[in-house]
Amino acid sequence: MNKIYLDHSATTPVDIDVMEAMLPYFSEKFGNASSVHSFGQEARSAVDNARHQIAEFLNCKSTEVIFTSGGSEADNLAIKGIIEAFTPDLNEITNKKKPHLITSAFEHHAVLETVKELEADGKIEATLIKPNRDGLIELSDIESAIKKNTVLVSIMYVNNEIGTVQPIRAIGQLIEKINKERDQRIFFHSDAVQAAEHFNMNVDYLHVDLLTMSAHKIYGPKGIGLLYIHSGVPIKHQIIGGGQEYKKRAGTENVASIVGFAKALEILNTKSKIIDDNKGIEKLRDKLIDGLLKIPNSFLNGSRKYRSPANVNISFINAEGEAILLNLDMEGIAASTGSACTSGSLEPSHVLISMGLKPEQCHGSIRFTLGRKTTEAEIDKVLQVMPGIIEKLRKMSPFK
Amino acid sequence: MRIAVAMSGGVDSSVVAKILHDRGHDLVGLFLKLWSDPLSENKSCQKENRCCNWEALEDARMVAAKLEIPFYVIDAKVEFKKEVVDYFIEEYKNLRTPNPCIVCNETIKFDLLMKKALTIGCERLATGHYARISQNSKFKKQNDKSKIKTEYNLLKGVDETKDQSYMLYRLKQDQLSKVLFPLGEMRKKAVRDLAIEYDLPVKEKPESQEICFFADRDYRTFLRRYLPENYFLPGEIVDAEGNIIGKHDGLLNYTIGQRKGIDQNSKSNPSRLARAEEEIQNCSSELINDKSPLYVTGFDAKKNQLVVGFDEDVYKKEMVVSNLNFIHTPYPMLRTPDLKVKIRYHHPEIACKVVKKNGELIVKFRKPQRAITPGQSAVFYIGDEVIGGGVIKK
């Protein structure tokens, strides 16, 4: 059976060129980048080059790139790092009020759970902004949520479940404007893990202070991510040890993965220069959306206009997303019901709930995320099997 | 044929997967994630539901990976809590002794899990239960041979010491028609030997037999977290005539037929509760009557009284069974002289006669039986065959 992979938001295959760039750094150039000798210098130079390349991609300084074990760690570092760096100063400015944080109700769990835990521990005050029915955060909602003790706004760039693109640049500019008129500066973080493949990642253009990225969503290796931290933004380290990553994240550098991360970005850069790649994948996405919506009682989740060219998320009334997923898997088609971390649970998606869907409308949602190698034949195959699966499941549905 | 295998990570279900895989079936492994008490986790015992903790999940997944079959985790936490755990608590609230495994089989394993299996195109659900299913075909009408009706019978497992048919008597014909019990024809030892022969990753795992959804050693510790305080208040011990003869330390610490201990000198001490059962075993010196020991014969919930009597008072000639389920309905064979009943799991079968009355059964034993326990199931057998059963009302 020819398997079809349509879950690129979960992870992507490592590009062969990326793997080849990494290979020398396992057994041959194995040095510790912190060592003084030639072995160490060889590794250090590889890390330096990679960091430099990545900084160019983000349009920032090398010293603003902090490597982490992945997106989740970068999100944790951004949020806890800011809160902990700020708490003592803030107490003076705001009469010992807790720092206030604004985020959205449909963030990735790495952000949402971090915020909820800080709130439960009594360390912060938090406002969770609900997206509108199209899965978009409204600027005015952020503006009206800002308080005197607000220190951080964290809004994701592209939602991992429904693929909607948030107005990061506009939010960044808004916060910049507001900052001019207040004592307590507000910092702006964006989890851009799902955005790098298709959207502008120029931190200057985006007006962000902090930005999270992960390599394995862009055909790089798993276990490596980064946090862009604008110079001067106070961050309390979360992992303590040696002084790596400008004392912001201890631990021996993951040299091979850092090299792989840079190579993945290099490939991404040249790819979009050669062809307007988004257009091709967008055509396939639209074919899939239009074809699936021909199945009765189905609807697209999230704005169609402000949407990742790779994301399709459709709900089918009276069919369980989990059952659709398993049936597709039996046909060799890999999809998802939400983010990979929550699949397998019957809990309705927090993303869809936050958009105002009823729990029973959320159970039947399924996500397809397309990738660089997705073909029209694969889309056709999905469109061929889906009507039968939905019809079968509706006959057996417990929701009737 | 595509078959779903309920995989728990234990030896039995792993061997089932291997056997069916060798027969060339298209297998899908399903692992049930069930509710476990979050409160017992927060305390010293960091354990998930024993049947479905992370370790069990990894074991099951390793077996599935070894057989190269797809493997899915089915989250039934909400349903299990509602159907099994709430029932368990509710029964104790009414001072009855529940059988959670029977309810889990009826509502979770052979209902929810079965439906899941069917929705992914499986025609059968196989489990590691030690029981057998046979089938016979009948003509629906005597003269019309075109309409053949297949009926399924539930039989004891060949290994009498492992037989689990008692736990399965609530299954219906449509469930039995889609269930496979490959271990029903086997002995436990042979199953274990096969696990070793196949070199399954779980071959050396010990058996789990206790209630799976809490890690406490004693169910009373669990109940204390979920029942109001008044269920654990001390009260009076009375004899059959209502004469007060001592104090008990909470009705939930006793079950029918239990040889009870009376601490005449001290008041109830809560820290003792967890050890109550143990103490009761060792309390021969504390007997109120200096000649014959006393046993629990009943409860008076309203008065919070524990009723005790002599050993002969624990024996009953009959019982009432309600909430019935029969493998074949209606079942005329209840009148057969070979009818036997099991009044609890791991209890010898007893010859009995049955009279139907108002949708309940009045069961008369040939010989009086000790400790008839309301809430436990009574399951009727003829030879190896399960006829059906119900829940003991009184």
- State the helicity of chain A in percent bands: 40-55%
**Looking at the structure, what is the overall shape of chain B?**
globular
- H/E element sequence of chain B: EHEHHEHHEEEHEHHEEHEEEEEEEE
Order of helices and strands of chain A: EHHHEHEHEHEHEHEEHHEEHEHHEH
Q: What characterizes the major β-sheet of chain B?
A: 6 strands, antiparallel, barrel
CATH class of the largest domain in chain B: Alpha Beta
Count of discrete domains of chain B: 3
Mean pLDDT of chain A: 91
Characterize the structure shown:
The complex is a heterodimer of chains A (400) and B (394). In chain A, the strands form 3 sheets. In chain A, strands 2-8-7-6-5-3-4 form a 7-stranded mixed β-sheet, sandwiched between helices. In chain A, strands 9-10-12 form a 3-stranded antiparallel β-sheet. In chain A, helix 1 runs antiparallel to helix 9 and helix 3 (38-58) packs parallel to helix 9 (255-274). Chain A has helices at residues 16-22, 24-27, 38-58, 71-93, 109-120, 139-145, 168-179, 203-206, 255-274, 277-293, 321-330, 350-354, 359-362, 376-396, and strands at residues 4-5, 65-68, 100-104, 125-129, 150-154, 187-191, 210-214, 225-229, 298-300, 311-316, 333-334, 365-369. Mean pLDDT of chain A is 91; it is low at 339-345. Helices cover 42% and strands 13% of the residues of chain A. Chain A has 2 domains: 4-12 and 276-396, Aspartate Aminotransferase, domain 1 (Alpha-Beta Complex); 16-271, Type I PLP-dependent aspartate aminotransferase-like (Major domain) (Aspartate Aminotransferase, domain 2, 3-Layer(aba) Sandwich), CATH 3.40.640. Chain B is built from 9 helices and 17 strands. Chain B has helices at 11-22, 38-42, 54-67, 77-93, 100-119, 173-176, 188-197, 219-226, 276-281; strands at residues 2-6, 26-33, 71-75, 124-126, 131-141, 144-156, 179-180, 235-238, 244-248, 295-300, 305-309, 315-326, 340-342, 350-357, 360-370, 377-382, 385-392. In chain B, strand 8 (235-238) and strand 9 (244-248) form a beta hairpin. In chain B, helix 1 (11-22) crosses helix 7 (188-197). The model of chain B is unreliable at 42-48 and 262-289 (pLDDT under 50). The A-B interface holds A 320, 323, 326-327, 329-330, 344-347, 392-393, 396, 398 and B 28, 33, 70, 72-75, 78, 115-116, 118-121.
